[in-house]
Amino acid sequence: MLDEKRVRIITGHYGSGKTEFAVNYTFALAATGKKTAIVDLDIVNPYFRSREIEPAFTEKSIRVIASSIKGPGADIPALSSEINTAFHDKSYEVVIDLGGDKVGARALGRYHEYLSEEPYEMMFVINANRHETQTPEDVIKYINGIEESSRQKITSLVNNTHLCGETQLEDILRGQKLCEEVSQILGLPIKYVVVHKSLVDKVPPGIQGAIFPIDIYMTKPWE
Fold first, then answer.
1. Positions of E strands within 127-215
2. What is 7-214's CATH number, 3.30.70.270, 3.40.50.300, 3.40.50.10330, 2.40.10.350?
3. Taking the domains of the chain in order of start, what are their residue ranges?
4. Contact 161, 174 (CB under 8 A)
5. Over the stretch 39-57, which tens digit does the pLDDT of each residue have?
6. Exposure class string for 64-77: b at 16+ Cβ within 10 A, else e
7. DSSP E strand stretches across the chain
8. What pTM was estimated for this model as a whole?
C-alpha cells in the first residue's frame, strides 16, 4: 500500500490534517522494517508539527530532521543542514512534512536540484471542510500555488476530509467526491483515503484510492 519511491512529500492546506497523515504514514513505513526518517519542513505553522512528538518517533527508531533551532517550541524558520542527509543517504526511506501554503512550500524549492535527480511522490492532502479547499477550483488554485513556490509537481491526491473527533462517514464521502472531481480535471490519481480506524469498516467498497487507517497522535498544545 505504501509508495515505492524513496522520497515522499506530504503537503496540504493548513488544517487539512497533513501532519497527522504524515505521522501515521511514517509510522507505517517504519513498521515494514525500513530505515526511516521524517523531515519536518513545516516552518510556518506553529501548531501540529511532526517534530512535536519526536520521542514517539525515537521509540520506533525513526530519525527526525527538523529546524536547526532545537527545542519543541522553537518557531524560528531555520532549516538544518542535516536535511541534506535525507537526499544524499539513500539508505533512508524519507517522508517530508511540507508547509501547506506558498510561503511554506518555498522551503522545498531550495532542494529542487536533489529532487530533479530522484523520482519522488508528492501528495496533496485535501480536507473538503477547509474554507479555502471546498471546491475543485479552490483546490486547483491551491495546488498551483504550492507547485509554483516549491518548484515541484504534485503527483497524487489524498482525501483526508474530517471534523476531528466529530468525523462521520458522510464527511469522508463528501471529500471523496471533491477529490474525484479534482482528479478528473488534473489527471492525478487519488492515492489514499484517510480514515480513522473506528470508521474503516463503514467505508463502502470500490472507493477510489487505498484506505489508509490512522490513529490520532497530534493534539492541540492547549489540550
1. 156-159, 190-196, 210-214
2. 3.40.50.300
3. 7-214
4. yes
5. 988 765 544 456 678 889 9
6. bbbbeeeeeeeeee
7. 7-12, 36-41, 63-65, 93-98, 120-126, 156-159, 190-196, 210-214
8. 0.90
